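User: My advisor, Dr. K., asked me to get a structural model of this assembly before our group meeting. I'm new to this, so sorry if the format is off. These are the inputs:
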Amino acid sequence: MSQTMDSFDAVVVGGGPAGATAADTLARQGRRVLLLDRAGRIKPCGGAIPPRLIRDFGIPDALLVAKASSARMVSPKDVRVDIAIEGGFVGMVDREHFDEWLRERAARHGAERRNGCFERIEHASDGGTLLRYRDASGAASVTVRTRAVIGADGARSLVAQQSIPEAQSRSSVFAYHEIIALPEIPPAGYDASRCDVVYRGTLSPDFYGWVFPHGKTLSIGTGSADKGFSQRGAVAGLRAAVGLAGARTIRREGAPLPMRPLPRWDNGRDVVLAGDAAGVVAPASGEGIYYAMVSGQHAAQAVEALLAGAAPRCLKQARKQFMREHGRVFLVLGILQRFWYSSDKRRERFVSICRDKDVQQLTFDAYMNKRLVRSKPLAHVRIFFKDMAHLLGLARV
Ligand SMILES: Cc1cc2nc3c(=O)[nH]c(=O)nc-3n(C[C@H](O)[C@H](O)[C@H](O)COP(=O)(O)OP(=O)(O)OC[C@H]3O[C@@H](n4cnc5c(N)ncnc54)[C@H](O)[C@@H]3O)c2cc1C
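Assistant: The format is fine. Below is the predicted structure of the whole assembly, which you can bring to the meeting.
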């Protein structure tokens, strides 16, 4: 059996943005990579991506089904703050085509694609790593030999559960959305180039509701960690509020969103995680595609070091590098979510402070370009005092 067993430098489990990027990165280095994906399901996702992602990962314009040039923040009392995205836009992608394009790019660079469902990692008597999966028909169990495994199999990652003890007890938010067809005559006030973000306890007790334009369709959704909260009821309410209650529903779907990066992404031997499997979704925004792709790259670079002969502790570099770049933003967004999303009173104030040009510039630069503006330290100070004034009720809402 071992004579006919296929052998790879690395197996990437999961063909979402994290896995496809990891496979592409390793294939470009000339490594023999297997990209294993359980095909057949479209990832439930609002599909909003920042310009930094489009730039850094060479996403072609043809994949963007819409470009949002403004965002509307809506408060519990329906106060609306429109923020123009100056000199840029937020791209909207349909995950069915976006993910497939990423997988195909990895294949073009030499990754081998297979459809199948990961089952487990084993070790041969010689210490080598074996990966077992069920083929696409479900009839056969296939075993391949590999030197490393990248677990990019999403928020319920089986690779993580088998390899990283901390993954057993991870917490998550559940996000739910409905994809609906845009009626031929859109409702009054609908703007195909505007993303609406609605902060209201009836839509989510701890997150927000959204209306994202996708060309001929829309994504309308919400998220919450509260298991007793009716997300379907909330989305029905949001649809009614924006005049889309009767529009044709194409899909109703949801999925867990991990709450925080796992404290460990590797098993110190031959496995490293990326994307939702590693827990890299930004608090407050729920943005995960960009972070999945960046962490996929870091995981691939760590595996490349291992393949080049470094000691297995080099796998730790994936998490280290990621947290060095994004840990601070995750920390700030976590505090922001815990504080501002906790009651309608605070949500009202949060939307109100979003009118502030400094706040807009700071948050947009953090989202669009993934950097905290350092060139304007005084703006940070001003924002801090404004926040305090709002907290203490000294400023008008
Ligand atoms: C409703 C909703 C809306 C969202 N909206 C946004 C948004 O607008 N913008 C944004 O940036 N993020 C958004 N996110 C988050 C974003 O979708 C995720 O963070 C992102 O998809 C993570 O990418 P990933 O590659 O790590 O995992 P995934 O995209 O989940 O990909 C995992 C892959 O692994 C495969 N897989 C799973 N198990 C196995 C197995 N056993 N064997 C083989 N393959 C397997 C799956 O089929 C899948 O292809 C949203 C999430 C939800 C749920």
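One thing worth pointing out at the meeting: Residues 112 and 120 are 19 Å apart (CA to CA).

User: Perfect, thanks a lot.
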